Protein: Phosphopantetheine adenylyltransferase
Amino acid sequence: MYTKAIYPGTFDPVTNGHLDIIKRACKMFDKIIVAVADNKDKKTMFSLEKRVELMKKATSHLPKIEVESFNSLLVDFAREKECKIIIRGLRAVSDFEYELQMGYANKSLDSEIDTIYLMPNLENAFISSSVVRSILKYNGDVSHLIPNEIIKDL
Structure:
């Protein structure tokens, strides 16, 4: 059976933690749609186009990956892509509460969509895009936090 999943996020910017989740999801599914969100509620450091470009570069070596942007409800995007599985990453208990609420909200909007939660490997558990942005703001070195493929682009 052919299976595909959506891994949504703002990815501002993509981190090694995101890439860790993507690589592990590739072992579980035939296709992963990395859905870069155009979230008007978030003030992003990078434009939507740049975030899509960075994600494409970071995942170019992974054949199961398709990168797209979206600006709708996630469940609507999932329906459009005929996808019934959403992947989310959990770094800490603080992520769990928010992700659980979002998972239930998505389920209430479409009962056929399930959310799968993956934890990153321990060495990536502390990495977040907001940490990377904070370091970048002060011209710090983030090379150990982001995929090698995008270092020159930041």
User: Anything to note?
Assistant: The domain at 4-153 is CATH 3.40.50.620 (Rossmann fold). The first strand starts at residue 4 and ends at 9. The CA atoms of residues 5 and 124 lie 22 Å apart. The radius of gyration is 15 Å.
